[in-house]
Structures are given as C-alpha cells and as structure tokens.
Fold each of these.
Amino acid sequence: MLVVVTGGSGSGKSAFAEDRVLSFGESRRIYIATMQAFDEESHCRIRRHRRMRSGKGFETIERYTELDELILPKNCVVLLECMSNLVANEMFREDGFHPEVSEKITEGVRNLLSQAEHVVIVTNEIFSDGILYEGESEKYKEQLGQINCNLAEMADAVVEVVYGIPVWHKGGEKA
C-alpha cells in the first residue's frame, strides 16, 4: 500500500504520517531521511523529527539520492520524509544541475513498493504561493509537481493535512 501525505509547512503532515505508519501494526519500521543538514536550521529540524520518532520503533536510513538502488528488509513499513528534499537532492547534485528527475524518482518509489509492505511518503504543498519563479526554481516546482502527480496516481490513499486536520483526496477516511 502506498499512502501520500501532503500539506504546507507546519501543517502536521509529519505527525500524521508517523501515526499512519504506526497504524500498520508491529512491522519493522524504516524511516528514510532525505534532508541533508547544511545549516543550523536544518540541524534543528532534524533533531525535532528525531524526537518525534523517538520510542516508535523506527530504524533510520539516511538516503539523499538513488532510491532506485536502495535495498530494504522485506515486508517492512517505510516512511519517506520528504519527497521535496529528495527532488532537490537529485536535481542540485555536486556534479551539476539535473533538470529531469521525475522518472528516476518515480522508479525509486516503485523500488520501495516492490520491497515494503506499506510505504508512506511525505511531500510538501509548495504550489499555492502565487509567486512565479525563474530558471532552476521553476524547474524544481515542475518536477516536484510531476512526481506528486505520479505518486497520487500510484497511491492507494492521498491525504492533505491542513492545520492538523486530514483531508482525504483518494482512499482512506473520506468524510
């Protein structure tokens, strides 16, 4: 099963996604962390997320790129957080800018699904700010948007967390 969790910054999507993983029972829980710490703000965010996961039985795998090559324990439950960081990592690599990553990342998700019993993916809703960006930033938004569409098509459930309230768009607990 694939569950996609989206929402704006600070919406509660991470807590919701963790609760979703816990709802799948006592399976082996793998947290795929995609955020690279570059500054104090990112270090603080990572520490906060580690505290949130503490005591919940997650094993953390730091994976910044190449999901398609990741080998997981069979029948585990995966929480990937977050797709937005993964897209940036794949696009803005040390060897230069890679503008077309949607197919590669989608294949990486298929790789996770082929190994895990359940996969929960957190992604960000960054498309409502009304600002037109240029160049690489606009390409980033385009690629993340395409990946989010691919994920929604593949997913069994898609939920947007708004102010801590889950709004189901596909599958799940529709009101």
Note: Residues 129 and 146 are 18 Å apart (CA to CA).
Amino acid sequence: MSTPVLLYRLVSPTLLRTLMRRTGTGASVSVRTLAQKAGLPHGTVGNLLTGDQESVAEVSARRIADVIGVDILVLFIPMQRAAASTASPVLADSA
C-alpha cells in the first residue's frame, strides 16, 4: 500500500499573485519562473492563480512557498489525506 498524499489548499489566488509580485528577496517572479524553480509544470501555477486548481501535494506547496520565500502556512492550508481512513473518529463525551 502506498503512503497517502497530504494535499494543501491555496489560501487565495490573490495572495499568491501578490506574493509573486514581491517575493522574500523583494524581486518579482513570473508564472513560468516560479514553476521552473519549483520543479512544476507552469500550468499548475497558472491554474492555482485562476482558481481552476485549488490544491497541490505537500511537496509542491513547499516548493512554491520556498521559491516565494514564505512559510508554507502563509499560502496553503493542509487538508485531509487523499486516501483517508474509513474509521469513524472517536468523539469526547460532553457530559
């Protein structure tokens, strides 16, 4: 059985676009340059910016954040694993 992939949802395409205009170094980065430096297809970055794609694998989210120069949690929100367990959660008794 393979390890489930943890997905990260982009906080906001507008935030990504803003941070691309002024990265951690103060320079701007284009869609193609960000994709190239992150080792991703430029379509992935473009789709995140248009909202056609809302999430990426953890490794991709980390690469994007690293290139821009921010912590991953500035740009992305961790989501449930793609292959989530079917077990029911145990809830604490409120009584």
Note: The radius of gyration is 16 Å.
Amino acid sequence: MKNKPAYSIDSVDHALRLAVLLCQEGPLRVAEVAERLGVARSTAHRLLAMLVYRDFAEQDAERRYLAGPVMRGGMGMEPVAQLRAVAFPHLEELVGRTGETANLVILLGDQVRFIATVECDAVLRVGDREGRLLPAHLASGGRALLAHRDDAELDARYGNHPEVELDALRRGLRQIRRQGFAVNNQATEAGVTAVGRAVFGPGGVPIAGLSVAMPTARYRRARLPEWVSDLAQTSTRIEADLVTMAQDWPPQLATIR
C-alpha cells in the first residue's frame, strides 16, 4: 500500500492526477479538469499549460486537452473513459444503497488502477482512490478479476512474483470464482475492508472490478450477503448498459483487461 507523503506538494499531485486522467479518459476541457481535480479554472489552465509545455498533453482542433507524446502508448484512452462514463451513475446508486464508498478498477499487469470512485458521506469513510494503484492479488476488485483468468495468464503475471505463492493464490481465486465475490480485509490498508465483484463486458469478458469499501470498524460479516447482492445488482446494470453500447465499441472493450 502507498501512503500519501506527509509533506505532499499539492501542485505536483494535481499535475500527476491530471496526467492520469488524460491517459485514461481522453479529451477534456478546462472546466472538466477543474471539476475533476476540485480546483479553480485558472489553476486547471496553468496545470494544463505546463503539461503541454513538457509534452505530457496537447490540444486538439476543438481546444480540448488530451495525452501528449510522452504519455502515449499502452492501453487506449477511449475504452476506459467510456467504461467510467457508463459505470459512474451506477456507482452513485450503489453508494446510496450501501452507505459506503464504491470503486471501479481495471487490471494493469499485477496491479489494479482505480478509474472511478464515489465517496459516501459518512464522517468516517474510505476516501477517493481514483488514479491509485494497488496489488491486484490483494485488492477485492483485483482478486475478483483474477478469479476469471486461466492458469497460463496467472503464471505469466505471478510465476516469478517475489510476494505471491502461486498455488495458494490459485486456491483462493478458485473459491472466489465459485462464490462470485472477493473480500479484502485490511490486506492493502490497515483499517479498510472491501468487498468486490467482477464486471463483464459483451461476450462475457471480465473487464473491471467493482467494490464497496468501508472502515473495518463498520464491517460486519452478517451484512456480507447484503453487500454481495448490492454488488451483483450494480454489476448487472453496468453490464446491461455495456451491451447496449457494444455496437459502437466492441473491439476496444477487449483491451480493458
């Protein structure tokens, strides 16, 4: 787990978060950047100008900002942006039903990246994780996704991993696949517990992990069936919306793996 530095520099943090947003979501306008980062439009404009100066961003013909030459490569931007757009209202509904923070993650190698977070309004709550990376084999959403990977892919990801005992991981993932959900009880962060489930794209491809995260003090095993049911409803609704949109972007969906 990565903790925020005690003496963090807000401007650097904003610039790094902005670079991640441009990579994941594609073209953004100044007003959209300001809203996403929670900063003034003038601040957003200065951040974008510096990213453009250093080739981390560039403007298109419509004066929107997108990832520049330094940031190009790897996963395409559009699929993640569209996945986030489809899922976000359902995350808000999930927070309304559970009273806990909801997240959406995707696999990147042996880690998961949080592409969307909706925080609950409880005073004691799990905060925004958007843009963060966590070990996939520990995070609930990551484990739910890995449970649907075959042995060859698990070998490729974890065969030589210094922190993973592959046979034990396989046993745990088989159980997750049977039960349809995963629990992360303080494995990535002390005092935080999360319950996760896979989200499938058209064609049955697992493309994202959905989770609710809460302070461990509020976790009750007796409520686990309720949270699992809420996750199942939400994932089903996201999947239905993805099917509706599939005619517009089926090839790109396969890249969110």
Note: Residues 77-98 form the longest helix (22 residues).
